[in-house]
Amino acid sequence: MTRRLPLVVIWAMACVVAIAAALGALIVMIPDGAITYATELPATTYTTPMIAVIVFWGIVRACGVPLEPMRTFVLGALAVYAVLYLVGRIMAVTGFSPLLVWVLNLLVLLALAWWAVAAAGRGRP
Predict the structure, then answer these.
(1) Long-range contacts of 25-31 (CB under 8 A, 24+ apart)
(2) How far from 68 is each of 15, 16, 26, 106, 107, CA to CA, in Å?
(3) Whole-angstrom Cα distance, residue 100 to residue 57?
(4) What was the pLDDT predicted at 104?
């Protein structure tokens, strides 16, 4: 049996690379560098969250964790797009700081990613 990195290292590496890939894709997709709440994003930017999910899955699989692709893509898409919608709704109806809302939702996504990696690494469905 081949040894693999500890699950927490695989999870952290996959999260960092997925976030970097998503931000890199946004940098390429958005023509000018100024983004505000009034910026109208091109339609292609709506695929950015799935880029992050696919990169996350690829890194985890490359490190030897048997993360199922279909479950990862479906649940990942539902989680990411639901959290993005939630961010918009929270910011629209509350006075919370945008940074606080962003950090809380990022923590939710990181926790879901850890749950998926840990379950797959231990052989659970």
Answers:
(1) 25/51
(2) 17, 20, 27, 22, 22
(3) 27
(4) 83
